[in-house]
Design goal:
- The structure holds two protein chains of two kinds.
- Chain A is built from 13 helices and no strands.
- Chain A is mainly alpha-helical.
- The longest helix of chain A has 42 residues.
- The two termini of chain A are 44 Å apart.
- Chain B has one domain: MetI-like (MetI-like fold).
- Helix content of chain B is 75%, strand content 0%.
- Chain B has 13 helices and no strands.
- The two termini of chain B are 41 Å apart.
- The chains are: A mainly alpha, B mainly alpha.
- At the A-B interface, helix 1, helix 3, helix 4, helix 5 and helix 7 of A face helix 1, helix 3, helix 4, helix 5 and helix 6 of B.
């Protein structure tokens, strides 16, 4: 009798976490299982606006073959990776600077943080449109004052060479504060002893930063990086409202590319194949990062 | 000694100057939007830019005319609030589980909770459209609430783990010894203690929903439309009505501003808790 009630209790204890954790996972799975399954199915079928009434034939890997031989797909991948790399690099450099600044004992700290936090909390649609207004070639105030200063009007959104940089600029404006505030929280949770030891040993501030602060912040940096990668990789609305992927596809990220095939050309099979490639790439990158986070957590 | 103090003074001055610069850069585009919203539409593109003018409510009146904006405001509010409530309940419960139980595979399970958040919306929007079409849910608030749960549950889960970790497990154990069940201990002891974290999480989840555009533009039409979609409706084929965009944009940003001022401290902590242990 004792052993039965003992096993029973042991079993309940093992199942107990599921009681808390399972509902979330079940709900998410129920919502996502159909969309994910259906788009996988679609990616192996021909579904275009012109042909779907005659049926949706199975075509094997044809969508994927077309995708891989489509130079615009590779273009969109290249642009996405360029964008992700440049934007995140700039955001982390600026964000680290800002975090170090805010880590000083400042007056009106709360108010400063609130103001700096604002851009990351703003509606993307509003951000995209506001910057489109600011970037306006003829009438925008940025070009007006640049011209006054003798730097001439810049084709912020209309030159294929500059447009991607403009989008990066907006993203940097939008999310540097997120990076900064996460790093700041990391900085504030660091133990003080190693820094005192370093000071006693005569380390200068540059050495302290690179040999002490950065390694200690590793975990924070990796998690911030994960969040930023997830968000930047799929960026849609800001780009859509700033440039809609133009000019000459110079800002066409993968999301915009899929949007074009899915909702302008209504080639749903093809768009689904592209979607699956995007999901696979995202999960691969996230998986690598998650492993790094897991490893540094156990250290 | 005095040169040392001078250097200290100067470096402090530099820090403040840089911080002020960061604040100005953060605010300038938003201030410009707000100013534009009070300008008469024909002044928007005046060159040189007009900074001193008689403020007018004309843009706001035009946006609010017809009562559509209020309707879409209610949509945005209802969708964001309901999603937040559901996500907080489910995500909070799961976060509690992750925080209080150690079991094999917990780390990877926690990471996999982020997968729905990682799925780029554009990749699942087509099948979601088909699904909601089949369920007769297109252009309803339900369609948005259901879609938004895919990214708010992971957010709530991820943020709340850290806040629950902060509550000493001994407090709950004491309550359980006194005869509380674990659930009772959670509700009576831990929940009040994580209230600030819960608030921060709620605010962030609310804003994610409030700001969302892609799902809303594809899944809703005249009935369930939300505010971000409404703003883009002022970009017509003929012209971009900047005055109305500025006015509606400013109104949409009001809750953002309020929350940023109210909750910045907890937001920062909440965002980083997943990282800093």
């Amino acid at each position: 009798m004792i052993s039965i009630s003992h096993t029973l209790r042991k079993l309940t204890r093992q199942i107990e976490p599921a009681f808390y954790i399972a509902p979330s996972f079940v709900v998410m799975a129920v919502i996502l299982i159909y969309p994910l399954g259906y788009s996988l199915w679609l990616s192996f079928h021909r579904w275009t606006l012109r042909t779907f009434k005659q049926g949706i034939p199975f075509i094997g890997f044809e969508n994927y073959q077309q995708l891989f031989s489509n130079p615009e797909f590779w273009n969109s991948l290249r642009i996405t990776f360029t964008f992700v790399f440049l934007a995140i690099t700039i955001e982390f450099v600026l964000g680290m600077g800002l975090a170090l600044l805010l880590n000083h004992d400042l007056k009106a700290k709360g108010l400063i943080r609130s103001f700096i936090l604002l851009p990351m909390m703003c509606t993307n649609v509003v951000i995209g449109l506001t910057w489109r207004l600011l970037f306006n070639y003829e009438f925008g105030i940025i070009n007006y004052y640049l011209t006054q200063l003798g730097f001439g009007p810049v084709e912020w959104l209309s030159s294929p060479k500059i447009a991607l940089w403009s989008v990066i600029l907006v993203d940097v404006w939008n999310t540097t504060s997120f990076v900064a505030l996460m790093l700041l929280a990391g900085l504030q949770s660091l133990p003080e002893e190693p820094f005192e030891a370093a000071r006693i040993d005569g380390a200068n501030s540059v050495q302290t930063f690179f040999y002490l602060t950065l390694p200690l912040l590793r975990q924070t940096i990796l998690v911030a990086l994960l969040w930023r990668l997830i968000d930047t990789f799929r960026i849609f609305d800001v780009v859509y409202l700033l440039t809609a992927g133009g000019p000459a596809r110079s800002t066409e990220t993968v999301s915009i590319y899929i949007y074009r095939y899915g909702f302008q050309a209504f080639n749903l099979g093809f768009a689904s194949a592209a979607s699956y490639m995007m999901i696979v790439i995202m999960l691969l990158i996230a998986g690598i990062l998650a492993r790094a986070i897991g490893r540094s957590e156990t250290v | 000694m005095s040169s040392y103090r001078l250097i200290r003074y100067l470096s402090r001055l530099l820090i403040y100057l840089l911080v002020i610069l960061a604040v100005i850069l953060s605010l300038a585009p938003l201030v410009y939007l707000l100013i534009t919203s009070f300008k008469e539409p024909n002044l928007t593109f005046n060159l040189p830019p007009v900074w001193i003018f008689k403020p007018t409510l004309q843009n706001y009146r035009e946006v609010l005319a017809g009562g559509q904006f209020e309707k879409y405001f209610v949509n945005s509010l209802v969708v964001a609030l309901s999603t937040t409530a559901i996500a907080l309940f489910l995500g909070g419960l799961a976060a509690y589980g992750f925080s209080r139980f150690r079991f094999r595979g917990a780390f990877w399970l926690r990471m996999s909770a982020l997968i729905p958040q990682m799925l780029p919306p554009i990749t699942i929007i087509v099948p979601l459209y088909v699904l909601f079409n089949g369920l007769k849910l297109l252009d309803t608030r339900w369609a948005l609430v259901i879609s938004y749960l895919t990214f708010t549950i992971p957010l709530a889960l991820w943020m709340m783990i850290g806040f629950f970790d902060d509550v000493p497990i001994e407090l709950e154990e004491a309550a359980m010894i006194d005869g509380c069940t674990r659930l009772g201990a959670l509700v009576r002891v831990s929940l009040p203690l994580v209230a600030p974290g819960l608030a921060a999480t709620a605010i962030l989840a609310f804003l994610y929903c409030w700001n969302e555009f892609l799902y809303a533009v594809i899944l809703t039409g005249r009935e369930a439309r939300t505010l971000p979609v409404t703003i883009t409706s002022f970009m017509t084929n003929k012209a971009i009505l900047w005055g109305r965009i500025a006015a509606s944009g400013s109104m949409v940003l009001v809750p953002v501003l309020v929350f940023a001022l109210l909750a910045q401290r907890y937001l920062v902590r909440g965002l980083s808790r997943g990282a800093v242990k």
